[in-house]
# Entry
Amino acid sequence: MPEPRVKAITLRINGRAFTVPAGTSVAAALALAGDFISRSDLAGRPRGPSCGMGVCFECRATVDGVPEVLTCLTPCREDLEVVTDA
Amino acid sequence: MREACDLVVIGAGPGGLAAACRAAEAGLDVLVLDAQPEPGGQVWRGEARKGTNRLARRWLSRFAASGARFRPGARVVAAPEPGLLLVEEGASSLAVRYDRLVLATGARERFLPFPGWTLPGVLGVSGLQVLVKDGLPIRDRRVVLAGTGPLLLAAAATIHAHGGEVLLIAEQAPAARHWGFALQLWRYPDKLLQGAVLSAGLAGVRTATESWVLEARGERRLESVRMSVGGREEELACDYLGAAWGLVPNLELARLLGCEVSRGAVVVDDRMETRVPRVHAVGEVLGIGGVDQALVTGEMAGLAASEQPVPDALVSAWRRVRVFAEALARHDAPRPELSRLATPQTLLCRCEDVPLSALEGCQNLREARLYARLGMGACQGRTCGAAAEALFGWSAEDVRPPCLPARIGSLRLPPEPPPTPKRAS
# Structure
């Protein structure tokens, strides 16, 4: 079955540009930026997305200057600026 | 900002959509709130764009034509008085006045702590499935799944279809209970069909009953898992682990609104009305029952909310679904070994970094909150609460507003708009 043609979107994660298919969530895109890390815990250990459904808050990151955004509920948009705290 | 409606539906999964359709088609002004960017809930996530599931397509197009209004990215943070909700939408706040309400808040996975469960690359079973549906690159990645029930197969099928390599499906239930449950599916043709479709893509994938994860290992992220497979230990190098054991209902809003909750489910009558007048509840908050239960109870609530009779056929369909749901609950009940995986250093509360050892001497959830900050972080105990119930038998208590992290401005009722100037005629 041929894949339907999907639009590509370019966003920036920690200053680096990544291109993803339209419909990709920001949490899923974090895997491209290395190690799938969204934040650090109180002791500085890395954390990544966990529940995928907006429940656990592990995937939170700064998106377009807004802190603590749940990246698993946020679709990638053109020129989106994502900053993780890890 | 302010909004008013006859009926507010919280949650746009199958149950919320069915309720909204029935009520809006009867002429009610219906407002549907959901935290996700699109309608469909978790089970039909992405279907609004992809449209691969026929049932989802049918309900989503019916919903689009129903006249109900949909507000994406909307999270209810408080309910200061009957008929009023305070809602946060991204950077803005909203007050919603309503006459009736339908709770369709669905369920989340039951996470149980084990050493290494906080490493990046360790997710829930459905959590990993959702991320894959949302574009997580999984081709040629090695995946281990540890959990229970039909969700395991559904996740494996999605990962497999996207090119991921499922090394092992670890089912916690004992073989006898697992196959006993599978045989019961014969009595439910739809479920059987789903099961057959799911396993078709999975021939050759290693599946083991009486199996679970012991430990996730890695430096900056997951590198390997140590498993107990049918009583024997083995270590598997992998890129992702999906580990969670069944579902638990999202009861925070039901508790916030004062609905009666018994044995982990909202109490309703045959019109899906809770003990709080004019507040209905549908779907997973009635006890985990899947899409069938959500659609049946959603229709019942939508009919009742718009003062239409609820046909006996729907009431008996709901009773049939409950029989299946109770068999599922018996199958999915976590075995005692799963409550003993955490070591004293393992974090139980992932938000406040509370290790198991910090809970020594605590007798209940309240003491664990006061003395150890369990459940006091960003997720407000949504993850560690169910874990504490499985580990210690501590039940959830009252829910206080705000039930999610919220901006201070969202907790204030927005000012009345100035009266519209009357024009001289």
About this structure: The mean pLDDT of chain B is 91. Chain B touches chain A at residues 35-37, 42, 46, 49, 73, 90-91, 108-109, 111, 118-124, 126-132, 134-137, 220-221, 250, 347, 350-353, 377-379, 382-383, 405 (CB under 8 Å). The longest strand of chain B covers residues 92-103.
